[in-house]
């Protein structure tokens, strides 16, 4: 186990490990978005159906996701993942810390706008993850930035 933990971020606190974890998860999200539209359509599930009864088939039909959109999302997510992984190891470097912070604010802004302004997603399981991760990490970073940046 020590051989594995030696490669994890060595800074104090859990925030660097969280950045590492979300970076790895983001890489996985990128791979799936390049591979299939299924999971991306769960996030961008379109407007509620007229009858109010959503089925997987209706959600898939209502989703605005195209292969190009999924690939752009995958590239954006992979870029954010790299920033977060670098920040996990260099969290005491102010520009890197704040650049990671910005990735979460961009994610929150994007998902919030797609939900509240553009209607390309609705509140549910697919949107909950990105919203919870982005808002909790934004708050965490704002509450602890002085611990890492002095």
Detailed description of the structure:
The protein has one domain. The chain has 150 residues and is mainly alpha-helical. The two termini are 31 Å apart. 73% of the residues lie in helices and 0% in strands. α5 (67-89) runs antiparallel to α6 (94-116) and α6 (94-116) packs antiparallel against α7 (125-149).
* Low-pLDDT stretches: none
Biggest sheet features: none
Radius of gyration: 17 Å
Task: Tell me how many strands there are.
Answer: 0
SSE topology string: HHHHHHH
Brief summary of the model shown:
With 150 residues, the chain is an all-alpha fold. Helices cover 73% and strands 0% of the residues. It contains seven helices and no strands.
SSE map:
Layout: H1 2-5, H2 15-35, H3 38-43, H4 56-62, H5 67-89, H6 94-116, H7 125-149
Helix pairs in contact: 2-5, 5-6, 6-7
